[in-house]
Write a structure and sequence with these properties.
The protein is α/β, with parallel strands linked by helices. It is built from nine helices and twelve strands. The strands form two sheets. The protein has an eight-stranded mixed β-sheet, sandwiched between helices. A four-stranded antiparallel β-sheet has the order 6-7-9-8, with helices on one face. Strand 2, helix 3 (90-97) and strand 3 form a beta-alpha-beta unit. Helix 2 (67-77) packs parallel to helix 8. The site of magnesium ion has 7 residues, from loops.
């Protein structure tokens, strides 16, 4: 159904982790014991800057080594709920990840795809859609069209790879051009790592994960993200668990922090702590 790479994506055994200590979550020393004691768990993951380094060509931002087999292991060897949460369209994320059997919340919450299924897109009012067309048109007066991405409910202007001064000047002009659209209401402009985006209000990563977690109702959940757009998710994840900022320390609503290079190990750890074959042994004595 989806264009996947030819590589065998079946779950590989997790190696060399038995002797490795669990990944430290800065600011949240009890993380793994909290996870171990939960009877139901959920893991929500941003993609760019969290599981995949940034690339000037945004369609070449591939996951870090170890991410894909670890995601497969979580899916196949644990009962944990897992979903990717991204500003990208679902189809684009699936192509980069090479996995179709994970749930993906795409386009900042405007698309949702269950494992192996096509995305369901939330309807957009025609007037909002027309505003996005106008935003793309206005942006094109200041930057090459190849750097303008018209998504279902947003328009992104990608500035990565430009000289810093040029990027700042373009961002200023685009922001100014978009101000007349923002003034009409119903849309907001938000920066992201590598550009800025005019988005229709109503859904964001926070409202999207709250919608999902109110159904899943996990005992314990974690959300990993790196960017300003992830702050919406950090703000709501505390109802169920812990937000983890991936990347350098900065002011954030996340309770914990992790370097991106540690993300594959974190996923391995999530899989091995919750592995069904090990659960009875690990849980004995952890409660009561
Ligand atoms: Mg990100």
């Amino acid at each position: 159904m989806f264009a996947l790479s030819g590589m065998d994506r079946t779950s590989e055994p997790i190696t060399n982790v038995a002797t490795r200590p669990l990944t430290q979550i800065e600011g949240r020393a009890s993380f793994w014991s909290d996870l171990r004691q939960a009877t139901s768990t959920a893991l929500l993951l941003d993609y760019d800057g969290t599981l995949a380094p940034f690339a000037i060509d945004r369609l070449a931002a591939l996951p870090l080594p170890g991410v894909v087999p670890a995601l497969q292991a979580i899916r196949e060897q644990t009962d944990s709920f897992i979903a990717l949460v991204t500003g990208r369209p679902v189809s684009e994320l699936r192509q980069l990840l090479g996995l179709a059997d994970l749930m993906v919340i795409g386009s900042h919450g405007w698309e949702t795809a269950m494992p192996g299924a096509l995305p369901v897109t939330r309807a957009l009012q025609p007037a909002r859609s027309a505003l996005l067309d106008a935003a793309a048109y206005l942006a094109a007066e200041h930057i090459d069209r190849s750097r303008i991405e018209r998504k279902h409910a947003s328009v992104a202007v990608h500035l990565r790879g430009l000289q810093l001064d040029d990027a700042a000047t373009i961002a200023k002009h685009v922001n100014s051009a978009w101000s007349q659209i923002v003034a009409e209401g119903g849309v907001t402009v938000r920066p992201f790592n590598g550009g800025l985006e005019l988005r229709v209000s109503g859904w964001d990563k926070g409202t999207a994960i709250a919608d999902v977690l109110e159904t899943v109702q996990p005992d314990f959940a974690a959300y990993l993200g790196d960017d300003d757009t992830d702050e919406d998710a950090f703000a709501v994840i505390s109802r169920w668990g812990v937000g983890i900022l991936v990347g350098d320390a900065r002011p954030t609503r996340a309770a914990g922090r992790l370097d991106m290079q540690a993300a594959p190990g974190f996923l391995d750890d999530w899989a091995r702590v919750l592995a069904k074959a090990r659960r009875p042994e690990q849980r004995s004595g952890s409660r009561q």
